[in-house]
Amino acid sequence: MRTLVFGGSFDPPHRGHAALLAAAAARVRPDRILVVPAFHAPLKAYGPSGSADARVALVRIGLIAALPPRWRRAARVELSEVRGRRPAFTVDTLARLRARDPRGELHFVCGQDAAASFPRWKHPARLRSLATWWYGARPGAAGRPPGFFRRLPGRFPDASSTELRGALALGQNCSDLLFPQVAARIAKEGLYGTGLLARLRATLKPPRYEHALNVAALAEALARRHGADAGKARLAALLHDAGRRFPSSMMAKYVRRRRLKVPYAAPTAALAPLLLHAHISEDLARREFGVDDPQVLSAVRKHTLGDPVMSLLDKTLYVADACSADRRYPGVAETRALAFRNLDAALELCLAEKLSHALARRAWLHPLTIELWNSLAAR
Q1: In DSSP terms, which residues pair with 150 in a beta bridge?
Q2: Bridge partners (DSSP) listed for residue 5
Q3: DSSP letter for each residue of 268-299
Q4: Separation CA 77–CA 57 (nearest Å)
Q5: 142 CB contacts (<8 Å, ≥6 apart)?
Q6: What are the distances in angstroms from CA 294 to CA 96, 102, 282, 286, 299?
Q7: What is the pLDDT of residue 51?
Q8: CA–CA dist 327, 325 (Å, integer)
Q9: Residue 232 contacts residue 295 (beta carbons within 8 Å)
Q10: What is Dmax (Cα atoms) for the chain?
Q11: Rounded distance, CA 108 to CA 303, Å?
Q12: What's the CA gap between 299 and 93, in Å, rounded?
């Protein structure tokens, strides 16, 4: 029996995966097709964003159902890795399949990125002997697969699950990469951050919601540029203004009712209650959205007033909020460009802009903001 094996996280499965599988089936002409979702790919530092059950369901409707009828009838999901509930190695999976059918042929297909990483897989020499290896090239892929890999004809969509997850979490249109049935299932179950977006959209006014999306896009880009965690930056940015659901007249009451520890709470409530929204947003992030990451919560809390002690993630969100794409003050484009070159310089410039604006209006200056300025000036 000739078996085509397609393994991966499929987090989520997209049109690139479907095109690769269909092309491999047409070339290999297998008797059966096994799609093998990983519980946790061993070479990846973090586990999949989607649960095993969710990804299996998406594979069924987004990969197997997308195959031409001839190959669809021969395909099924192989559940051994996800049922193991731990990282599984491809060499063990293929050895198990070989034991089931000692005289059969195994053909393994993967994308160019995965193929290029083959030397880092467990027992690559044994792996090579267990199957015939195929890959599909895509424009954005990096690295060259080992010479024994056979290249499938054609070029495949420049689709990355990592980038797709980020796009979904930012509410972007992903119809060019996701089949409608997959996109609908993701939206229905609130997967990949879409549930969080739906809750934010329901509680924030449209301009505020759009601002959160703009800040998240910039924060993620800045995080990637400067080495911060892009997922944490995006999450903190999406939630940074969650407290703006309340009018400023209600914020002091919320702070008192929730007994939030806000520095200089009394003068802030009396003179500039809108500044309380950062601490309220932190409280909502923890209580309503289930965020318990101290780095994310710190960035949310410090994004308005700042603090003499600012982590890389704190600075990233502070700057992204101050010069996001929806900001229109003079010089904001230059500040945004500077942020990619020198985050600390951009932070100082953003703070100076805030102080100048407040002084022009003869507004009260929060002591934490003054402390931040003094800490920067003393360097």
Answers
A1: 134
A2: 34, 108
A3: HHHH-GGGGHHHHHHHHHHHTS----HHHHHH
A4: 10
A5: 113, 116
A6: 42, 52, 10, 10, 9
A7: 86
A8: 6
A9: yes
A10: 83
A11: 48
A12: 42
User: What does R_g of the chain's alpha carbons equal in angstroms?
Assistant: 25
Dump the DSSP string for 15-71.
HHHHHHHHHHHHHH--SEEEEEE-SS-TT-SS--SS-HHHHHHHHIIIIITTS-HHH
Could you give the domains of the chain?
Answer: 2-159 (3.40.50.620), 206-377 (1.10.3210.10)
Q: CA-CA distance, 295 to 197, in Å (whole number)?
A: 21
Nearest CA to 374 among 300, 295, 306, 301?
A: 306
Token look-up 């060019």 returns 176
Of the candidates 46, 24, 16, 12, the residue with the CA atom closest to the CA atom of residue 193: 12
Q: What are phi and psi of 366, to 5 degrees?
A: -70, 135
Q: Which two tokens stand for residue 56?
A: 């299996």
Please tell me the total number of residues recorded for the chain in this structure: 379
Whether residue 116 contacts residue 13, with contact meaning beta carbons closer than 8 Å, is answered with no
What's the rounded Cα separation, in Å, for the pair 350 and 310?
14
* pLDDT tens per residue across span 338-372: 999 999 999 999 999 999 999 999 999 999 999 99
The torsion angles phi and psi of 259, rounded to 5 degrees, stand at 55, 45
Place of tokens 């969650």: 242
Task: Write out the chain's pLDDT in tens, 379 residues.
Answer: 999 999 999 999 999 999 999 999 999 999 999 999 988 767 555 656 788 899 999 999 999 999 999 999 999 999 998 888 888 899 999 999 999 998 999 999 999 989 999 999 999 999 999 999 999 988 777 789 999 999 999 888 888 888 899 999 999 999 999 999 999 999 999 999 999 999 999 999 999 999 999 999 999 999 999 999 999 999 999 999 999 999 999 999 999 999 999 999 999 999 999 999 999 999 999 999 999 999 999 999 999 999 999 999 999 999 999 999 999 999 999 999 999 999 999 999 999 999 999 999 999 999 999 999 999 988 7
Tokens of 299: 């960035």
- 3-state class of 327 per DSSP? coil
- Record the pTM: 0.87
- Which run of H or of E encompasses 162? helix 161-169
